[in-house]
Amino acid sequence: MLATKSNSYTFQKDGIWYFSRRVPADLRRHYRTGRIAYSLRTKSVRDARVRAMSDAAKLDRHWHILRISSEDLPGKHLLTDAVQEPVAEPAAKEHSLKDAVAVYLRLKGHDRPPTFEAAVRRSCGYLIDCCGMKALKDYLRSDATKFRDYLFAKGLNGASVARIFGTVRAVINLALSEFGLAIVNPFSNVYFDHSVGVKKRLPVKPEDIKKVQAECCKADDEKRWLIALIADTGMRLAEGAGLLRSDFIEQDGLLCVNIRPHPWRSLKTSSSKRVIPLVGSAKWAAERILAQPASSQFAFPNYNDGERTNANSASAALNKWLKVKIGPDYTIHSFRHSMRDRLRAVACPSDIIDQIGGWLTQGVGASYGLGHNHRTLTRWLISIVEAPNLET
User: In this structure, are residues 157 and 197 in contact, taking their beta carbons and an 8 Å threshold?
Assistant: First the structure.
């Protein structure tokens, strides 16, 4: 039984609603199919229509960008088998960069978020735009240095260039191993200044943290609950924004937050999965969230549509508010830097700091055991909440 709702870009099959929309004729060259269709993962007609209309709006914005800047679209050659300009095809049985991307995504992309594939295609797309699609054996050291200069000329900072080079290097290394090619990767050990254009994030001063927390209590709304939660836990914005109400748990009589991966929001690293006891403004925020009517499973429903957590939207809104309150030098991520400094200021051991923040602790011994218990973490977190205003 197939029911179609053309006005909301949805159709239903076996009780599940799907999104379906035809690709415009003038943009067909960017796609391998003439229609975009996928499951909306819901049986609710209301939820399906809301999600479909949201996705349709995103497509409209993306298609508008394609129409006005298709020549500059990173990775355009990887989006489709048809290319904008004639390029020389690799000789028979020669493995191209496109083959390398395909094998990398097949082997490394399992159970990874959509952003993983997007980053791979974007990085390798930049290389294709700069040096062309070639057989792997035909990329030279001169291509690598040309690629470096190309990225900096685009206005990217040193950290972004390092990230793109790291992705390209990993893709080619894996392909060389899988294809059995005895080739030195020309994108390895390329020198560039990692500090170019990188602005160091400043930690929020202790007195400003208290000021922000007081303003959060005064406003007492969803955005301010998220800021207050981050301020006294040091969690990443996406980690907080993607939480469920059920991620607030009680362990050993303590209210804690369970930071774990979700289909709509992955975690940055395996060490990011952790349980943090809640104290100070974070405990207040959690209690305010749980006191609200359970109309949504999400702690912050305005930033979640069931498919993904919109951390970019949250960042823009929260940073705008913070700049008004404490100045233009700070962002929501500055609280994460502050957390590390605040814990250092009370002489907290580095492995406890790493466990609270979800940072990777170096050394073989760090992987042994279950880590510090929640009461130990709570004692250190309380010590920074109750600490006097000292410069960190």
Answer: yes
